[in-house]
User: What shape does this take?
Amino acid sequence: MQQLLSLFTLYTGKTNPILEALPSSGSNRRYFRLKKGDLSLIGVHGESREENRTFIALARHFHQQRLNTPEVLAVSKDEMFYIQQDLGDEILFDAIKGGRLTGVFSHEEKTLLHKTIGMLANFQVKGALDLDFKACYPQPEFNSRSVYWDLNYFKYNFLKTTGMDFQEDLLENDFDKLAENLLRDRSETFMYRDFQSRNVMLVEGNPYFIDFQGGRKGPIYYDVASFLWQAKANFPEELRDELIDTYIETLKKYQKVEKTDFLKQLRQFVLFRTLQVLGAYGFRGYFEKKPHFIQSIPFALNNLRELLKEGFEEYPYLCGILKEMTELKQFADTQKRELHVRVYSFAYKKGVPNDTSGNGGGYVFDCRAINNPGKYERYNNVTGLDEPVIQFLEEDGEMLEFLDNIYPLVDRHVKRYKDRGFTDLMISFGCTGGQHRSVYAAQKTAEHLSKKFGIKVSLVHREQNLEQILR
Assistant: This one.
């Protein structure tokens, strides 16, 4: 890397810096840290002169616009090497590791994400001001050629590798419809194209953007989809919605935004970006044998499965193929694990039910403080499933107040378990005989959870030997 050493000396006047190779990314560029005393710079060797020219031109433009990007300091005559500002080693992807792994993001992690998504809107608008998009490579603008490159990237590097049979003409018909929708809105904004947390550096807690050499003029939705539906981001739906709101509020400083229309068009780009990502993972993983990309495929497939739950009626053949693809045997182990909630009623005199999942824990609620129908002889031969007992408990009011306090608690628990990918939760209600109060409470709670979350709920009234599956 003599060229980088020479550039360092030419720029700094210092000789013989220490050269340290840095981990490579998904691209073919190689990065090095050059250090001499307290001075540290980043050296880059890029194999594509055109791509290097694009990055250098964009970096200099963004620096003039006072945007948070690394400053390019010196470039070799052949434009194959350059040195830039050293932003350190902290990337957003690592800074939100706790949330990514658990699905529960801390206040600090959320603050970083909101700051980043807000800066994205600024970057897209300000970065485009006075920018000569002819400098962008390989395309100056997001156009039909860009769309079909990515759709075919998915078709040939992922879909065809599965061995599935499909009719290409019908698939291409839906590709045409998707392309038409993606290109519906013309935009004078900068489309980053690979905006994700691995490409955001943190310098004293402030986001800096890197690896933007694939950018071009294009719609804002692509970058929002790239960031919020990044395969390994694991953003809960609630957090994703909050980040979209932050993005929209920032964007409103520059243009009028109708949220309903924004979300509708964003969904088109989420589908498109997910297909593009699968194509990239297929090429980098299956053909270039890079394990990092193969490991990311299950996350992208889970994003696709979530999208297909609501579906896209405008692309019937494409959706059918994608659904069939996600259900292939070779992808069976990539499916996101579903939560199974088991709800029990029981009699305390016979003991608390065992947790058959092996996980232990869960909730046990004591119903014995509630007025007991069992002390009245007329209720001896009926249970909490029968109308006379239901009427008694509901008219009394204590049971309804009891459950009104329980629902918010178990709702939060179920939501966290879903976000974190947990598979088992047990909720038990006990009373003296396990016949009236606990049966009513367990039944109503199971129905409530099934209706609200659409999850599998197993309901067991132990003392009546009754079992039911709610979906």
User: Anything to note?
Assistant: The two ends are 62 Å apart (CA to CA).
